[in-house]
Amino acid sequence: MSHAANAVPEWVPSARKLLRRSREGALATQSAQLAGFPYASWLPYACDETASPLFVISRLAEHTQNLLTDGRSSLLVYDSTDDAVAAERVTLVGIARPVAATPLLMARLQRYQPQAAQFLALGDFSVWRLQVDVLRYIAGFGRMGWSNSEQWQAAPVLSLEDEHALLSELAPQSEVSLIGVDFDGMDVHRNGRFIRYAFETCPTDIPALREAVLAQLRAG
Predict the structure, then answer these.
(1) What is the distance between the alpha carbons of residues 82 and 196, in angstroms, rounded to a whole number?
(2) What's this model's pTM, rounded to 2 decimal places?
């Protein structure tokens, strides 16, 4: 797939933050039943360590049947708390593929989607990832642009191994359930709700990230 013209890296940080604080979106796939037409469906998702979306989907679902035929797809995520015209939103375009269910990846997925283990135990569910090729980010009226996969991949990533180590160290110090950490922010489960805390200043290394998480935990 060719990259979008005039792609710039400035949209990547905001797009990643929107993806990380959201939990659901509209997935558009290539219809196997209606050749040439897109098929859009609502799906919950969780981000992997790179902020790429993960889906737990059944082989029986229409969108899965479409992806098995053609993995080209896109995901629209938007901030529903904003005015419809001014709403922040992003469309990720790329290829969706099944994911190898490594222990650390599955642990992260199940922290964000506790029901995932039940679905996967049924046998016909599997984990898929949308590999970002290009994205279109809209910050509001008149502010929008494209970014490409190289710009997406250049963003700092906390490995699953380092996240696991930080959670093992920091979770016991928290009165809330610490779900995940990354260089953009942290997620907790409090009073039955998932809450995303974005860092005002994003840390650039693990020691600074540890301090940022501790500061947020102390602040409540």
Answers:
(1) 17
(2) 0.92
